[in-house]
Amino acid sequence: MIHPRRDAVxxxxxxxxxRLSTPSLRADALxxxxxxxxAVPQAMxxxxxxxxxxxxxxxxxxxxSIVAAFWGSSPYLNTGPxxxxxxxxxxxxxxxxxxxSGILDLVFTFMILVGAIRITMGLLxxxxxxxxxxxxxxxxxxxxxxxxxxxxxxxxxxxxxxxQAPSTLLRMGEVFSALPQSNPRAxxxxxLVVGVLVVFDKFSKRFPVALASILLVTLAAIALESTRFGAxxxxxRDIAPIPHGLPALVLGPLRFDLIFAxxxxxxxxxxxxxxxxxxxxQSLALKxxxxxxxxxxxxxxxxxxxxxxxxxxxxxxxxxxxxxLIERSGGQTALANxxxxxxxxxxxxxxxxxxxxxxxxxxxxxxxxxxxKMLDLAAIKRVWMTSRADFGVLxxxxxxxxxxxxxxxFFAGVVAAMAVFLNRARDLQIFELVPRKETTRFEELSxxxxxxxxxxxxxxLALHGDLFFGLANxxxxxxxxxxxxxxxxxxxxRMRRARSVDYSxxxxxxxxxxxFQGNGGVLILTGVRHELRGVIEDxxxxxxxxxxxxxxxxxxxxxxxxxxxxxxxxxxxxxAELSSAWREYFDKRQLEASVSH
Length: 597
What we know:
Number of domains: 2
Number of helices: 24
Distance between the termini: 50 Å
Strand content: 5-15%
Radius of gyration: 32 Å
Strand order of the largest sheet: 4-3-5-7-9-10
Helix content: 55-70%
C-alpha cells in the first residue's frame, strides 16, 4: 500500500540517495560494470527485435538507466530496453512503416508519447492503479510475448528474408517454406549461441555467458570468412555501422498526424512497462525491507523514455534479470544503475568495431533462448490448479496477444478479468439474523425467500460486501419478496459489513423503503456510517428513512444493531405476532431492563 505521505512526486534528482561512502561507491561501480558486461549483447538484440539498428539498444540502455536512476524510486531497478517493449514497439509501428520516411522518426514520436503518458500518470498520482492489474492477464500476455520473441527472429536465425504476412502463423509458414534457402553459416552460428547458453546457463549468475557466447561466435564468423562453407553471414554493420562515441541528440520531427493512431500501442507500452517496473521494484524493495513510491517511479520511467528518445534509443522499462543482477552483485544505491549506463557508454566508445562484427544470427539465437527461458510454465500451472476462471482470463489474453494484435492482448485480459470479477460479485450477500435460543446473540443464515418461515412482525437481515450496480435489481427483488412472503411490520437491516453502497443500490433501498412505508411497515438501517447517512440526507429521503430509523455504528460490533431492535421493541404493539425466537429475545431483553432498573 502506498504511504499517504510518500506518494508525491519529487522533481529533485536522487531524492532517496543515502549518504555515500567509499565502500558503497566501490560496490555500486562493481555492480554496474558486472551488469554492463551482461547487458551489451542483450540491448543490441532487443533493438533488432524492435526493427532498429542494434546500436540504438545501447543508446537506450545508457540514457534510460541513468535518467531513471536519477528520478526513480527504487535503488535497484535497472531501466532500459526490454524484450516486451521492443516487441510491442515493432507491432505498434508496423502499420505506419510503409508510409513513413524512416523508422527512427516513428520511434521518436512513439517514445515521446509513451514518456508523456507515464509522466502524466505519475503527476496525477495514479500509482494505485497497479493494484488492479490482474496477475493472470499479465501472465497470459507475457507468455504469448515470450513465444513471439522466440519465434519472431527465426528468419534472422536462418538468414532468410523478413516475412511479410500479417499474422504470426503465416509469418512462421513463410519462414519454414523458405528453409531450403537458409545460410548454413548463419544456422551454425545461431545453434552455437543457443547451445552455449543452454549448457552454461546455470553459471550465468556468476559469469557473462551471453557475452561469452556472442564473442565466441563472432570469432567463429571471422574464421569462417576465409572458408568456402556457405555464404558470408550478415553482421551488425550490414544493418548500420556503429558510430564511434556517444549518441548525438535527436530532436524530432514529431509526427503529430500519427499521434492518435499510435495512442493504443503507446498506452500498451506505457502500461505494461510500468507494471513490469513497479512489480520488479516492489519485489526487490520487500526483499530489502524498503519502500518505493509508485508515483515517483511512474515519473522516473516517463522521463527516462523522453531521454531515450532524445538520444536515439527505443522504448523500454524495468528489466527483472538486470535488476536482480544489480542487487546480487552488491549494488547498494541508485548509483549502481548510473555506473551501468556509464560503462555501457564506454563500450560504445572503446569497442565499436568489435560490436559491428557481431553476426545477426547470434543476436537471433540470444533472443530465441531468452524468450523460451522466461516462459513461466510453473506459474501457468499454478493458475490452472487454483482457478479455472482465472486460467480462462490467462488463455484469452494469450490468444489475443499471440493470434491477434499484440498491443490489444493485455487490455483484452484486463477486461476479461473485470468480467470474471463482476460475475463473482453479482451474488447478493444477504443473510437473515435469527436470535439464538437462551442467549442474546444472533446467527446469520443464508436467506432463501422460498423456504418456510415462521410468521413474525420482526425480520432482521444483514448485508455484506460491496453493494454495486450489478446487485441493485436483486437487492430490490429480495427485499420485496421478503416483505411479500412474511408481511412483517419491522425490517431491521444490519449494514455494518456493507463496505460500500453505490447509487443504484441506494435507490433500490429507497424504493423499497418508500413502498414498505406506504404499506404501514418500518425499515430500520443499523451500522450506517456517517458518510452513508449523508447520502440519505442529500437524496432527500429523510421522510422515508427518518433519523430514528438510522443507527450509526458504535464501538461494539453488535451495539448499533441492538439499538435498532430496542427502537423496534418500543414501537411493538402488545398483540404483535412474533416468531418463537424473537418472542424469547424481546422477553429476555425486557426482563434484563426491568432488573437493571
